[in-house]
């Protein structure tokens, strides 16, 4: 037999290389000797091999390569300095041949398998290894490509994209643009305002704490009746210096509006929204109202109107107050307006632009061009005029020296006035705020104004009415958010009945992020939901996947509970439209009478909402448009899944929490048939009772275990191989 020839180059003086070469030469001599001494000249053209094939992938394995695959599987098992996992083979002579008994390490998917009787030890070993590989694949310890790793054959828990979990953490903080849902119950029907309507009437109740202010009673009027749960709305509106107004609504039936009343109501709402939010439009001498009679389908429809202090059936709306405000000179055509020329000192006052009855001036809104400010007139100070003293000088001298204004009618009594406020977000606690302006607000600061410097804008627009109107935007914002939470509750209830048990306020809390600056947020619920989710997913994986080791179980759990997976599941259920991630900004409060003018469409979307590059100037990217777009982090959307899970646990218990997880797409169960298989399998560990004092341990921790096999397994290191059970790694 011809031999191959080789040339080896060794490092001079390297004894380890010399020894290795000697071993190669010795092995070659032994192999040649075996060949020369063989007694049979029979040749085997083909060895019959058993083959296992995976239909889904086409991957296959035969008895010839099963041994190496099994060793590779053991190499991938967890190890430490005290333990190196490897298979053990024992051979038993049987009547029909030699049987190989294969023992796997304690941290393998299973411990033992017996092969079929074979003519030789090598064939018996290969047969046992093939049988073990088949079982490993069935248990999920081998993938569908018959490689060691996390299996995919027994997927019972839905994961959307396992590769997502390997992305950078920055991916979770990526922002994307989404629409915010507008409550369907507040959306208008396609109709004109110059039509008759039957509207549902809700009385808005204000309870000030302390009771130091008076508030004009108001009513909310909507086309569709609100859900019953929203009628229990109870919200605290936080004013300056720890003052609170508790607000709520009470349903009082339906009221019919004729065409004229609908126009009056629309104009009144447009009027007070302009005064509160767009007061620069009130500086001209003439203000046009009711320019747009159509209803915007992308906005909300409701009316906020003053009601009488005592209810009178269908006459509860204070129409005289509405008409009085709308009859003000500012809303009259200047061409047809006749000024009050007759001046009666005891009954009239000369204001900037005309002479008016004192009764019209009291409880009105005036504008002072020299300061560009608006004021509520609370009273007429009959005992005080411009000749009265103010800090050592008269009012007339003060205005002349400080403002260079010479008063023409110093004999007129001064007006006691309160400056028109700026709207604030009243949904968060302002107790710690202590600015100078809010200190004046606490004491209800008044000033004295000469009538001739004041332009009369709205008759009958008193400070009591203004105080109520300052509360309504924050109240309506909370009501809209509550209605959105109720819509989500209805969606979930249509899929699983357990959702009907949860409160809408709980859902709202789980949808409200900390950026809203409200007294509720999802943070606490998220912590609870996150802990529970990791527990139930880890438990489910442990019970369902007996072929996975600790590392594989951890990776599978991480894939399921990762932010990327929760984000994908949330998007599938459209949860992003319900999330509230912006604080209430009164300047972006839009309602009937003040439509949003930033029209958003696909062509303008990128221009209106540019990508947020600078996180410190995020408010510039949150422009309110007709589609209510806002930017959301992927992690924020994922957090909402955990917070919703948390509120289900708190309010409804584990059964409802599991129902929610099934709905969102995480198919885990607490009652799993495989659970009893795990308990039965743990009985093999009872042989270790002599190695450990279980009673002493139970007494120490104060708990008696029903299934002591699992407890024993928790203390077994994989290097311990004196029993047939598992170890703490499986």
Automatic annotation (TrEMBL):
Keywords: ATP-binding, Endonuclease, Helicase, Hydrolase, Magnesium, Manganese, Metal-binding, Nuclease, Nucleotide-binding, Nucleus, Repeat, RNA-binding, RNA-mediated gene silencing. One of its GO terms (biological process) is ta-siRNA processing. Residues 66-156 form the Dicer dsRNA-binding fold domain. It is found in: Nucleus. PROSITE patterns: DICER_DSRBF (PS51327), PAZ (PS50821), RNASE_3_2 (PS50142). GO terms for cellular component: nucleus. Its cofactor is Mg(2+); Mn(2+). SUPFAM superfamilies: PAZ domain, RNase III domain-like. It comes from the Eukaryota. Transmembrane segments: none annotated. Its main location: nucleus. SMART domains: PAZ, RIBOc. Residues 347-458 form the PAZ domain. Signal peptide: none annotated. The keyword Thylakoid does not apply. Residues 475-653 form the RNase III domain. CDD domains: RIBOc. One of its GO terms (molecular function) is metal ion binding. This is Dicer-like 103. It comes from Zea mays.
